[in-house]
TrEMBL record:
Keyword terms: Oxidoreductase
Transmembrane segments: none
Classification of source organism: Bacteria, Bacillati, Bacillota, Clostridia, Lachnospirales
Name the UniProt record assigns to this protein: 3-dehydro-L-gulonate 2-dehydrogenase
InterPro entries noted in UniProt: Mal/L-sulf/L-lact_DH-like_ah, Mal/L-sulf/L-lact_DH-like_NADP, Mal/L-sulfo/L-lacto_DH-like_sf, Malate/L-lactate_DH-like
Record has Oxidoreductase as a keyword: yes
Amino acid sequence: MSIRVDYEDVKKTVKQAFLNLGLTEEQAETCAVIHTQSSADGVESHGLNRIPRFAEYVQKGWINLEGQPQLTGAKGAVENYDGQLGIGITNALFCADRAVELAKEHGIGCVALRNTTHWMRGGTYAWKMAEAGFMGLSWINTESCMPLWGSDKPSVGNNPFCIAIPREDGPVVLDMAMSQYAYGKLGVYRLGGKQLPYPGGFDKEGNLTSDPGAIEDSRRILPTGYWKGSGMALALDMAAALMANGNCGTDMDEQDKGSCTGCCQIFIAYDPYLFGSREEIQAMLNRRIAAANAAHPEREGGSVTYPGQRTVLTREKSMREGVAIDEAIWKQVCALAAGDMDTTDIASR
């Protein structure tokens, strides 16, 4: 069951949970903001829902709370960092900021990060680059969690990809996994007792299904666009590992240390006004969005939105009415904040 909790109360509780896990004041504040913002934006699967698993990984030593990005190489507008298995959020924020700084100098900036941990909501970093006035691209490779097209066993990551367009009247931000639904989203629907709006994978008998629990059990999530999403996932995996000189998905499979432990991430920032004025670029973006919003809806009374448009509306509602949180997840986070529950007990739930 979903409940609504005041934004500041959520952030305060999450921060205390992180402090109890051993994060510094600065780390806890930063991570609390990102997790709370993600849930407030309607991406609870990678907001509060991820906190119990983060707690488990800290306890197991899979996340190095002292790890920070270390520069390993640089050439022009490109830099390579080793994340030292540090906190995924703080590592990724550093790299997104660094990509923007490089783009300010060179017009484009690219930061490749290896040996890091789960960045939680991937769109966080694309939004950040767009809000700084730059087009942002970012993606991650993961351990195998999705079958390649033609296979019935996990053999590639769902490798989320993000792109943000810095439109001043509202950024356009696409944040998508290469699976029709990420596992976190399956969990949201399962916890809510709901079926998926569209088939999202196969059950253990090989039947296409909209039952999130059945897909979680089979581990046969459906690639977005069938063979196209499968191929894109494989290409993104290899591209990230190549650019960062780090682990590919197969390497993470062999390490077997949880979701995205030791992964690679890429952050690219691009100055939108390299070859056009602010006025003409923004006018073009507004024309395109106006046409998209004016697209004829399939149902009477419906509307067509651009990527990121509903996010803003959800954020406004969360700030006004409280952040929507699954009650069971909230109890676990509150227990962590109170320090009266062992993280292994929480992670097993």
